[in-house]
Structure formats: C-alpha cells, structure tokens
From TrEMBL:
GO terms for cellular component: cytoplasm. GO terms for biological process: 'de novo' cotranslational protein folding; cell division; protein transport; protein unfolding. It is found in: Cytoplasm. It comes from the Bacteria. One of its GO terms (molecular function) is ribosome binding. Involved in protein export. Acts as a chaperone by maintaining the newly synthesized protein in an open conformation. Functions as a peptidyl-prolyl cis-trans isomerase. PANTHER family: TRIGGER FACTOR CHAPERONE AND PEPTIDYL-PROLYL CIS/TRANS ISOMERASE (PTHR30560), TRIGGER FACTOR-LIKE PROTEIN TIG, CHLOROPLASTIC (PTHR30560:SF3). The gene is tig. Belongs to the FKBP-type PPIase family. Tig subfamily. This is Trigger factor. Residues 29-170 form the Trigger factor ribosome-binding bacterial domain. It catalyses: [protein]-peptidylproline (omega=180) = [protein]-peptidylproline (omega=0). Pfam families: Trigger_C, Trigger_N.
Length: 490
C-alpha cells in the first residue's frame, strides 16, 4: 500500500514546505513496507541545493583563513576550490536535516527510531536534483478508544499492625548478619550453592557461586524450578541434588527453547540471617529518628504496595478494554529492541511501590521467560496510553521524579544521590519519566471510571527465589552485575 505525503492520492507527489526564512521544497513519496514501517523517497530540487551551497560559501568565506588574504575577503572561487570537501559535507548535512524536518512536520510522521540512512554513501550531484531514500519505524496510526466512564473492579485492603510487624522483620533482614547453620536447612535459610547445567549429557553452563534463599520456587532468567523447596528440603553443607528443568519457550537462545536440561546443585554452606535489634545505631543507619517513624515509613511502603496492586489490577482491566481494538501489528525488530525497555519500566514501577529486591528479581525473571509476547502487549499499551497523555496534555515535573527516586532509595537502603546516579548511568531515568507519564494517563482513566470494590487477597510472601542467572548462559548476568557495581561506586 502506498501513502503520499500531504495528499490522499496514492500516486501523486506533493510539495513539502515549512514556514522559515528560506522555504525549502522537496518532493516526497511514502510507501508502507510493513507494520509501522515506512519507506520514504525524497527528491530535492536543484534550487534548494544551490541555495544551501551559496549560504555555506558565504559563511565559510566570512571566517576562512587563507594566506595572502584578509579574513572575509577571500575570493569565492578560491573558497570553492580550497574547501571543496568541507562545502560538500556541509551542504549534504543541511539538505538532509532540513528535508527530514519538513517531511516529519508537514506529514505527521511520528518516528519511533532514527531513520536508516547511510549518510556516508550519499553524494549530492554537481548538476540536477538530489534523491535519497530511507526507512523509518513510526508510531501506529489508530483511533483512540473511549476511555472515560469505564466500569472496573477495585480490590481494597487495610494495613494493620500485624502487616507492619511482618514486613518490618523482612525489611530488617538486609541489615542483619549471616550465621552458619550446622543442622539441616530450614525455609528462608540462605544456601550457598554451585550449579552445573547439562544438555544431552554435555556441559551447558555453570554457576560457581550463588547464594539463594530456600523457597518453594527458584526462578532463573530463562527457566523455573517449581519444586525447588522440596528438592532442597533438609540439605546440609556438602549435599548434592539433581533435577530436570525446561528452558523457556521465549529464551534468548532460540535453539534451546523448550529443551530439557539437567541441573546439579552442590551445597557449599547453609546460613541464616540474625535479625538485628532496633536501636539508635540501626535507626541512624536506616535514616529514621525513632522506631515509631520507622514503622510509619513501613506502613507507607505497604500502602504504596496496596496502591500498586490496585493500580495493576485496575490497569489490567483498563488496558484490556482500551486495547480491544488495537489489532494493528508491530514490527518484530521493534519488539525485540524494546524488550529491555519494557522490562525496565516494570522494574521501576515495583521499585517505586517499595517491593524487595527478591520480589523484583522474581518478576524480572518471569518477564524474561515471556519476553517477546509480554513486550508486544506492553508496546501496544504504551502507544495507547501515550496518545491519551498527549490528548490530556499530561507532563512529568522534575519534583515528581525526585520524589520517586527518594522512595526507591528508602526501600533499597541507599542515598537518593546514588540511586539517581545509577539510573542515569543505565539510562533508566528516561524510562522513569515515560513510566510516570503513562501512570498519569492511567490515573485520568481511573478518575473517570465507575468502581465496584472487592476484597484484596493478602499477598503470598517469599514463594519465589529469583536470581540474575541464565541456564543457557551466565555471561550476560555477570556483565550486568559488573555494571551495577560500577554505578554503586560512583
């Protein structure tokens, strides 16, 4: 299907121009070459090229230093001869930039990524018009669904003292000290293990040292051991246990998807955390002035988690309703490139809600095992919410970002400065802003929705142990940890 710029005629070519000091005219033609992908052919008339060439000669003539001539008095012919390559490069750059801006502005092209243009291979002819082509991924064009007055169910739960006590005990674990257990391991003990993975009797990969809590499920980035608690029940230092696991159907290593792998665990030690007493020293370390203030902060975290669960439940209902008509396809290349971004945004939302590192890692590994399908769904949701945010003129303020970073820092036991530095270095600060804008769009929908309240189930705690390791490869996880350690040192 062919789509002409600035016209409904599929075969006609239209002049593109914009209000500026010099009005450039180009002829451009757009063809759809795939989902959300356009092929653009641009023709620049000789008059535009000559205009930019004359401008460049004048600008260069006014500042060029040539022996025997005063600055600003070098003959035009000499400028053209001596600075031939510089002029060519400058004209090409200006022609390309001006053309791309005009095409995007005048024809509602909304690129997702930079266009694929091999600038080095392009040459502007000495005579006649200049033509170049490129492909670009653009935002899908769709009619915004009705998003006001939706009927939704909203789960509710009151936070009591018992909830605060349970969470506070888990929260204080990060400040406790590990002690060796000489007896058999108990639930929530920490197992220091090495793991060997084999496929068809041949070594696949190996984890030499890993500390993991003993919980019912062990979730890796590309597989899951659902009976991990039973497998490792009662282990002692030196014990070995074997099991068979299946690699996720969406694992990064395509050839290993769905394959059965043997995992051998060797227990190096069994340890437990001695929860510290709440005293002045611990309170100072945490950054709270009193136990009452600490409990109040914990209650705030739990209320944020309830809000998160409410948001996720209602958001899921909202997105199901507003994406019912989102039957447009997305290019596979775009989905693949956006896997990490989608993952980062989910992690950010959990960090903002005050979930523990283990909870976040468990969710991350779950998403990695469904990376392609979950990202495709998340991208469609993003485009719809982004369009709603634009319609409602929603923007994120700097102080809103500062507040989110403060809450994440408090939950992780770090300073806001360090958390911000790590986010800036990893590129997650942009994800945070985009995620907050989407949240505002959801809030607009939720404010105008009609609710039926239901009882929220108490969340099941500590069911999953999650580790940043892969059955098929441990290299990516190790590199990721090195990057995080580097950010922490800043």
């Amino acid at each position: 299907m062919s789509d002409e710029l600035a016209t409904t005629d599929a075969t006609a070519e239209e002049t593109v121009s914009a209000d500026s000091e010099y009005k450039m005219s180009v002829t451009a033609k757009i063809d759809e070459v795939g989902p959300c992908k356009k092929h653009v052919t641009v023709t620049v008339p000789r008059a535009d090229i000559d205009h930019f060439y004359s401008e460049s000669v004048s600008e260069l003539g006014g500042q060029a230093t040539v022996p025997g001539f005063r600055v600003g008095h070098v003959p035009k012919k000499l400028i053209e001869k001596r600075f031939r390559q510089e002029l060519t490069d400058q004209v090409k750059q200006r022609v390309l930039m001006e053309s791309l801006e005009l095409i995007a502005e005048d024809n509602d092209l909304d690129p997702i990524n930079e266009p694929t243009i091999d600038v080095e291979s392009l040459e502007i002819p000495e005579e006649g018009e200049f033509q170049f082509e490129f492909e670009v991924e653009v935002r899908p064009d769709f009619k915004l669904p009705e998003y006001k007055g939706l009927k939704l169910e909203r789960p509710v739960r009151e936070i009591g003292d018992k909830d605060v006590d349970e969470y506070l005990n888990r929260f204080l674990n990060q400040y406790g000290e590990m002690e060796e257990r000489k007896e058999a391991a108990e639930t929530e003990d920490y197992l220091e293990v090495s793991i060997k993975f084999e496929h068809d009797g041949k070594p696949l990969s190996e984890v030499n040292e890993l500390v993991v809590p003993l919980r019912p499920v062990l979730r890796l980035q590309d597989a899951e051991i659902k009976d991990f608690g039973k497998l490792m029940a009662g282990v002692k230092t030196g014990d070995t246990r074997d099991t068979e696991i299946e690699v996720s159907e969406e694992a990064e290593q395509i050839e290993m998807r769905g394959e059965k792998v043997k995992a051998t665990f060797t227990v190096k030690s069994v340890k437990f955390i001695k929860v510290p007493e709440i005293n002045e020293e611990l309170l100072e370390r945490i950054g709270a002035e009193s136990e009452e203030e600490l409990r109040e902060e914990v209650k705030n975290i739990l209320e944020r988690q309830v809000t998160y669960e409410q948001r996720q439940t209602t958001r899921s209902q909202v997105l199901d309703k507003i994406t019912e008509s989102a039957d447009w396809d997305l290019p596979e290349s775009l989905v693949t490139k956006q896997v990490e971004n989608a993952l980062r945004r989910e992690i950010l939302e959990m960090q903002q809600a005050g979930f523990s590192r283990q909870d976040i890692q468990a969710r991350e590994n779950e998403l990695r095992q469904q990376a392609i399908s979950s990202t495709r769904k998340a991208l469609k949701e993003h485009f719809v919410l982004d369009k709603i945010a634009t319609t409602e003129n929603l923007e994120v303020q700097p102080q809103e970002i500062d507040m989110e970073i403060y809450y994440m820092a408090m939950q992780q036991g770090e300073s806001p400065r360090r958390v911000r530095a790590r986010m800036v270095k990893s590129g997650m600060i942009e994800n945070l802003e985009a995620q907050l804008r989407e949240r505002k769009a959801v809030d607009v929908i939720l404010e105008k929705a009609e609710y039926t309240e239901t009882e929220m189930e108490k969340p099941k705690e500590n069911q999953v142990s999650a580790v940043a390791r892969s059955v098929c490869s441990t290299f990516a996880a190790a590199a990721s940890e090195e990057e995080e350690a580097g950010a922490d040192e800043e």
